[in-house]
């Protein structure tokens, strides 16, 4: 039921996430700088802490480029819808101060996360560029491929908890963390989330060495800023979901969530891009059979405990 406390709780959480997105970009540039034996941002403000603000001012004050052959409404509204979907995804996340308690939170999460495919394809198609269209087609194919195994992995946690509620799943892990039973699935979840968020080594939708900048090649100014904010916000959400589903639940999000975000960044600096056919083979011939077998095993485990 709507009340003022819930509204302000959600508003505070979204503001904190947006501030976190800004400083995650600073963390990424700093970590990548040290991996590549350079300093990274360190001039704007103390230790470069004001660099994200300077980047935001630059992006939002940049001139908007109107393409002659673009599909105007799709070109303008696709990044806006992407940022809106990012907000709706974070609403489901359980926090300690009065926000919504979704009994079917995981179903809500996957319903909205699947809509990101349309945003990505809309950005690539509306630009009317061969590079952006190819990047969008790649991104759509890999997101659809990995969402299948992600759903089966989540269903294993649902079967063990008998609930779709994030808070109930967290409560069950007060006894034992799920990674003890589902460690291979946790590894598959993390790798699949890297592909779902179009991050290295699965950044085929933004392959700079092949597609200039992929699906967002024609975007600048506020359009690129919205795409950028949505991408990093979903990276933070996926990193936190690793903790909620496998590493102790909501109580450990602040500490372990930061470690997982740093891991996302470290992977970018440590691994080269995969071949596209290897990615598809890994999704359909590797991760999907393993996740289905674990789901069947989870049903068997719960049935065995019930019969005891």
From TrEMBL:
Entries under PROSITE patterns matching the protein: COMPLEX1_ND1_2 (PS00668)
Source organism superkingdom: Eukaryota
Keywords annotated in UniProt: Membrane, Mitochondrion, NAD, Transmembrane, Transmembrane helix, Transport, Ubiquinone
Transmembrane segments: 6-27, 72-96, 102-123, 144-164, 176-195, 234-267, 287-307
Gene Ontology CC, one term: mitochondrial inner membrane
Reactions listed under catalytic activity: a ubiquinone + NADH + 5 H(+)(in) = a ubiquinol + NAD(+) + 4 H(+)(out)
Single biological process term from Gene Ontology: aerobic respiration
Listed PANTHER family: NADH DEHYDROGENASE SUBUNIT 1, NADH-UBIQUINONE OXIDOREDUCTASE CHAIN 1
Database matches in HAMAP family: NDH1_NuoH
Annotated family: Belongs to the complex I subunit 1 family.
Role, per record: Core subunit of the mitochondrial membrane respiratory chain NADH dehydrogenase (Complex I) that is believed to belong to the minimal assembly required for catalysis. Complex I functions in the transfer of electrons from NADH to the respiratory chain. The immediate electron acceptor for the enzyme is believed to be ubiquinone.
Listed name of the protein: NADH-ubiquinone oxidoreductase chain 1
Species name: Appalachioria falcifera
Taxonomic lineage: Eukaryota, Metazoa, Ecdysozoa, Arthropoda, Myriapoda
């Amino acid at each position: 039921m709507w009340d003022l406390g819930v509204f302000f709780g959600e508003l505070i959480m979204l503001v904190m996430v947006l501030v976190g997105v800004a400083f995650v970009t600073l963390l990424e540039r700093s970590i990548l700088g040290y991996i590549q034996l350079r300093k990274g941002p360190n001039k704007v403000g103390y230790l470069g802490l004001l660099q994200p603000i300077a980047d935001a001012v630059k992006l939002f004050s940049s001139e908007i480029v109107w393409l002659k052959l673009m599909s105007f409404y799709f070109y303008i509204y696709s990044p806006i819808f992407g940022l809106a979907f990012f907000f709706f995804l974070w609403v489901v996340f359980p926090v300690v101060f009065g926000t919504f308690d979704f009994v079917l939170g995981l179903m809500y999460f996957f319903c909205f996360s699947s809509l990101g495919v349309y945003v990505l394809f809309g950005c690539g198609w509306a630009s009317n560029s061969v590079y952006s269209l190819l990047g969008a087609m790649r991104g759509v194919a890999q997101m659809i491929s990995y969402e299948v195994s992600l759903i089966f992995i989540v269903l294993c946690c649902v079967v063990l908890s008998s609930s779709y509620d994030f808070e109930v799943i967290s409560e069950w892990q007060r006894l034992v963390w799920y990674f003890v039973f589902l460690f291979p699935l946790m590894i598959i979840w993390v790798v699949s989330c890297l592909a779902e968020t179009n991050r290295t080594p699965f950044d085929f939708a933004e392959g700079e060495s092949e597609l200039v900048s992929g699906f967002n090649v024609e975007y600048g100014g506020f359009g690129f800023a919205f795409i950028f904010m949505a991408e990093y916000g979903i990276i933070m959400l996926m990193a936190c979901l690793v903790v909620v589903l496998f590493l102790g639940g909501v109580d450990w999000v602040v500490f372990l969530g930061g470690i997982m975000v740093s891991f996302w960044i470290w992977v970018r600096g440590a691994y080269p891009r995969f071949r596209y056919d290897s990615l598809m083979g890994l999704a359909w011939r590797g991760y999907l059979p393993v996740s289905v077998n674990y789901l069947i095993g989870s049903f068997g485990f719960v049935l065995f405990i019930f019969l005891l």
